[in-house]
Specification:
Elements: E1 2-6, H1 8-14, H2 17-33, E2 36-37, E3 42-45, E4 52-60, E5 65-73, E6 85-93, E7 99-104, H3 105-124, E8 131-135, H4 139-151, E9 156-160, H5 164-178, E10 182-184, H6 188-192, E11 197-200, E12 219-222, H7 235-240, E13 242-245, H8 248-254, H9 256-263, E14 272-275, H10 276-280, E15 294-297, H11 302-319, E16 323-326, H12 332-337
Parallel strand pairs: 1-7, 8-9, 8-11, 9-10, 11-12, 12-15, 13-14, 13-15
Antiparallel strand pairs: 1-16, 2-4, 3-4, 4-5, 5-6, 6-7
Helix pairs in contact: 1-3, 2-3, 2-11, 3-4, 3-11
């Protein structure tokens, strides 16, 4: 049986941001409609540091797809030649459980995470929003700039990161690639002052953006933190904002941005306005006034990876792209006779 092996270069070629945004729209709609099985991700903490191995299984009806992302998150890779997230997405069919694709997870994670933020920004941000602040200067900063450009008329970009050299290098590189004026600034406060779009894409464990800095009408995508004890935004900002989740269960179990101010007594579970899929299906309201602060707490969920791998498989099969190898498929006894 032929199995697709899609490397990082191929994924970036066949899965452009606009396509990824539409794929995420379909996936999150299916989630809201209930045709998904998706337990919370599980982690194995690797001794001696803050690195973890994560397992993210899921099933999606309609696509007849089941699979798992296996990803190693190594924050210490930031600033090296290696991405902080390494792994693969395995896509199986649901008719016989046959493995159909092995897809690089570094590229899928980079693209689909930003694509979800792009979709959410299109749903929640003011139509004329275009003054963008990016906190962090790694892979997600790069793909989030692409995603914001795909859905809003971005006019100006300010970036802040530690170390400052990474922000300077990001600004120089992205100015060339995007054709936009990208400016490296010396503080996070300077980056977000007057911005109406904010994307936080850091490895921070404590707040790097405070509520007092954020202007009315701003939309925020909080992407970097993904554990109950870590966050990029302070409690005041989360309490001020209309808060949206990719999935409630993930928010209630994993999001420090939500769990820490909840424990402080600032709000309860009702503070979550809805899931993004519920906005797409009309079950939850989007922005209700131009002056509201809207906040999407991105945690990344397994169906986003599975839907991406499925789409990449379809494109490669249709176009005859990628490397196809024989893996499994036949009953062992029958295979031995052959």
């Amino acid at each position: 049986m032929k199995v697709l092996v899609a490397d990082q270069k191929l994924v970036t070629e066949v899965y452009p941001m606009e396509e990824a945004i539409q794929t995420m729209r379909r996936a999150l709609t299916v989630l809201a409609e209930g045709d998904v099985v998706m337990p919370l991700r599980s982690y194995l903490a690797i001794p001696g540091g803050d690195a973890v191995m994560g397992l993210m299984p899921s099933f999606m009806g309609g696509l007849e797809a089941v699979g798992v992302k296996v990803v190693a998150a190594f924050p210490a890779n930031f600033g090296t030649e290696y991405d902080t997230h390494q792994g693969v997405v395995l896509f199986f069919d649901t008719e016989r459980g046959l493995l159909r694709a092995i897809v690089d997870a570094t590229s899928i994670t980079a693209i689909r995470t930003a694509a979800v933020s792009g979709l959410v920004t299109d749903l929640l941000a003011n139509p004329d929003a275009g003054d963008l602040a990016i906190i962090g200067a790694g892979t997600q900063a790069h793909t989030h700039l692409q995603a914001m450009q795909a859905v809003r008329p971005v006019r100006r970009v300010r970036v802040y990161s530690v170390p400052s050299k990474s922000a300077t290098e990001f600004a120089e590189r992205e100015s060339r690639l995007s054709g936009l004026p990208v400016e490296a600034v010396s503080t996070a406060e300077e980056a977000v002052a007057g911005a109406d779009l904010i994307c936080t894409t850091t490895t921070a464990t404590e707040p790097v953006v405070l509520g007092d800095w954020v202007s009315p009408g701003t939309h925020v995508n909080a992407v970097g933190a993904y554990t109950p004890a870590t966050r990029e935004l302070d409690s005041a900002l989360v309490a001020r904002a209309r808060l949206y989740a990719d999935r409630r269960e993930s928010m209630l179990g994993e999001a420090g941005e939500f769990l820490i101010p909840k424990a402080e007594g600032l709000f309860g579970d009702e503070h979550i306005v809805g899931e993004i899929g519920e906005v797409l299906t009309g079950k939850a309201a989007a922005r209700t006034s131009p002056d509201e602060i809207t906040l999407f707490k991105s945690l990344g969920i397994a169906i986003e990876d599975l839907a991406s791998a499925h789409r990449i498989y379809e494109v490669c099969r249709e176009r005859g792209l990628g490397v196809w190898v024989e893996i499994g498929g036949a009953h062992f006894g029958a295979a031995a006779e052959d």
